Amino acid sequence: MGWVHSRRDHGGVIFLDIRDRTGLVQVVGDPQRGGAAAHQAAEGVRAEYVVAAVGEVVHRGEGLGNPRIATGEIEIVAREITVLNTALHPPFEIDQEEINLEQRMRYRYIDLRRPVMQANLELRHKAAMAARQYLSSQDFLEIETPLLLKATPEGARDFLVPCRLVPGTYYVLPQSPQLMKQTLMAAGCDRYFQLARCLRDEDLRADRQPEHTQIDLEMSFVEQDDVLTTVEGLMQAVFAVAGIAVAAPFPRLSYGEAMERYGSDKPDTRFGMELIDLSATVASVEFRVFADALASGGQVKGLCVPAKGQLSRKDLDDLIAFSKQFGAKGMAWIAVDAEGLRSSILKFIPEDVQRALVAKMGAQPGDMLLFVADRPKVVADVLGRLRLRLGHQLGLVDKSRHNFLWVIDFPLFEKNAESGAIEPMHHPFSMPRAADIPLLESDPLAVTAQLYDLVVNGAELCSGSIRCHIPDLQLKILEVIGIDRAEALERFGFLLEVFSYGAPPHGGVGLGFDRIVAILSGQEASEVDIREVIAFPKTSTGRDLMLGCPSVIDPQQLKEVGILKTVDPAAE
């Protein structure tokens, strides 16, 4: 039984390719072998009809097989074909390669019939099962947490749910189960996990949906190494479903070292071309771009682009424009030719410094040296982006590899460049390193948190931390970012109350499950489109074209939940 994938009439013998989620099989309507009834029925079917065929499975014969399908050596000679349902002609062919995305979203039930989408759904199932089996083997309990919660500030905008029973009040849908899983630790559950639905009302892109799934886990009485080791085993189990062997333990880089070497806290380590600090090398140079940056507390760093790059002048102009998009004032360059160096900036740089730059950057004839001078944050961001762009553009990235990496030792706080206010780098609920706790009052920007991110091929898979479980310490951390005790109790009183009744040390992570499955399906980690591995995703504007939502709600229904006025989007 299945859908008619194709129909071919070969001189009185009709061949039907019948498809279900396991693949295709050829069914033959031959009046000589199977009888007139099956042949007659086959004459009336068309693409995407749903049919049942009864007959004899036979070998196709020597040289007649189809090596492109798993059942290519056999066929079914039908003696009976029944049409279970007819079908309109589909808006696109099931084996069509280029299909308009809006059409795919509008007719998702047809799009999902395509073999690649069936394979993605099966892969997602296997990955979920592998996660459940592994975590269960490590004594975790799968515990469901509520979808109707109290609003707490978590960064993104909440989806609101009006409560009919208490007019004028609202639940929110969970951006993550963070509060609930920490409460479970205080409740003595010890090891929790969940394939959790998370909902955020935020601007969308290919790797972001209003609802997504994360492998959420939390552990009590652990240190950072315990969490990292557990997650490494989880990744080995999950990636194995796609035949990808993952070596553990994963390398670890501090946040500071990652930014210094790669200009990113989620570095792609599949290729070199690391950032090189040249501030000391050019400290005496009168080239104004370098001198002004250093005088204002900035830095000068560079990249050595290997000879295979062969960047043209147009390429360099494009890179300069690209650099300016992300805050740099420009980008300088020096070409290393066999005959010597070539650049308009050489007249400002003494020959001994030129030689020092070539030596420091390990340059060889044919290489191109790129420089950015600015505030450290701008330099890191711009050069990190240039590195990634050139790594892919020049084919330096080995896309067959899956390079896992832990980035650890994040600062707990950072200073807002515009306002000067101290803000949490990730969130204010992470435990500081014990040695840094005294710095909360004297030098909060020097405090390192027990925060960690898992990165693969330049994409973040998860972020987590050892949590601050001591109420007084948590209040002190909140005070650093301008939240006094009264406001803390108003905004986070529930969690502080939970901790005041004896919460154990605990920590965990939330892994982006959709992103993981997209990578397992063969997508490039830093460019995933998670819509390909979600059964019913939304468009970039948050719409479900198949269901036709969001939609206007009946006024009576709004009145019942205490919302008296609404806006008709068609009238806007």
3D architecture notes:
By secondary structure, the chain is an alpha+beta fold. It folds into three domains: 2-85, Nucleic acid-binding proteins (OB fold (Dihydrolipoamide Acetyltransferase, E2P)); 117-250 and 403-410 and 449-469 and 504-555, Bira Bifunctional Protein, Domain 2 (BirA Bifunctional Protein, domain 2, 2-Layer Sandwich), CATH 3.30.930.10; 271-393, GAD-like domain (Gyrase A, domain 2). Helix content is 29%, strand content 23%. The protein has helices at residues 36-43, 101-106, 108-111, 115-137, 178-186, 224-240, 255-262, 288-295, 313-325, 351-360, 376-393, 439-442, 471-480, 485-500, 513-520, 555-560; strands at 2-10, 13-20, 23-29, 50-59, 74-85, 141-142, 160-162, 170-172, 191-199, 211-220, 252-254, 276-277, 299-305, 332-337, 340-342, 368-374, 404-408, 413-415, 422-424, 451-456, 459-466, 506-512. The strands form five sheets. An eight-stranded mixed beta sheet has the order 6-9-10-22-21-20-17-11, sandwiched between helices. A five-stranded mixed barrel has the order 1-2-3-5-4. 33% of the residues are buried.
